[in-house]
Structures are given as structure tokens and as C-alpha cells.
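The data are passed on as follows:
___
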Amino acid sequence: MILPIFLYGSSVLREVSKPIDKDYPKLKELIDNMFETMYNADGIGLAAPQIGLPIRLFVIDISPLDTEKTFAELKNYPKTKIFINAEIIERYGDMIVHEEGCLSLPNINEKVSRPDKIKIKYLDENFEEHLEEYEGYFARIIQHEYDHIDGKVFTDHISPLRKQLIKSKLTDIVKRKMNCKYRFK
């Protein structure tokens, strides 16, 4: 089922999400709905707060980036990943600036500086624990989605000047006065 995406200005996007356990109601159905919602919106990642649930869950599918030569490094990573109760243990490496966008902030793209490498502990959909390291663009995608479960959005990482320059766009999103090709709240 395709769910509405909560946009900038929704209070759930500013909540620090709570961990879940294996008895979370209809978890498999929720994960399937998150992937379907993400695909419908042409996204590559979606966090539970973006569909109105303040829980520590996000999904990623990098398949749409397969054709981009810029992201050739991604061939070393699985196409889809599910992260439950994730905790970034370490962020390290060079700070890399790259443009980001977000389904909760339609029509806004800004350059964001993030560490190039991360170490993350998480549970998969079977509640098996993993401790893994990622780098490059895949690490960026994880950090972006992880921000959502910590009550942050990517514009929190841009300069005050850039925020001022996009203030009218942010206001339009808050007032829901923008074009968006997917269902939203």
C-alpha cells in the first residue's frame, strides 16, 4: 500500500524515534509498504518518520542509481537494505560535500557535508544484529535516513545563509503550496 509522505513542517519529522522489538505489529507489511511508497515517489531511501511513525526503521534501495557512472562504487553494496534500531557507532574519514534531496522536502536540493565513512550497528528484518562499515555514497544515504530517526532533516546541515536563501521554498512546503507528484501529509 502506498502511504502518504509527511512533509517538512510535520512534527513527527522532529521527534527522536523509539526502538521497536520483533513483536511490532505487522512489521513485514509495514516494511513492504515503505518500499512501495518509496518506489512510487522515486526515492532511494525512506524512514518511518516520513510516513508518520516515530520508530527507528528505515529502508534503502539503490537500484535506481545503477545506471549512473558517478555511483559505480555502489556496485559493491546490496541493492536493498532494511535498518531497524540502527545506531551509528562512528563517523570518520574525509568530509565530503554532495547534493542531497529528500522526499519530505520536495523540490529542494542542497549541498551537504558528511563524513565519508561510517560504522553502524543495526537489526535486519529478522532481528539479527549486524555491525558493518560503509563508505562513499552508500554511507551518505544511510546517514541521511539515520538523521530522520534522530529527528533531523538534511537542511539542518546547511549554512544559515543557504537556509535563508531557501526560506520561501521551506515556507511553501510547510503551507503545502508546492507541486509534488506523490501523496503527502
Observations:
- The chain has one domain: 11-174.
- The chain is about 25% helix and 30% strand.
- The beta strands are 45-47, 57-61, 80-102, 105-123, 129-135.
- The longest strand covers residues 80-102.
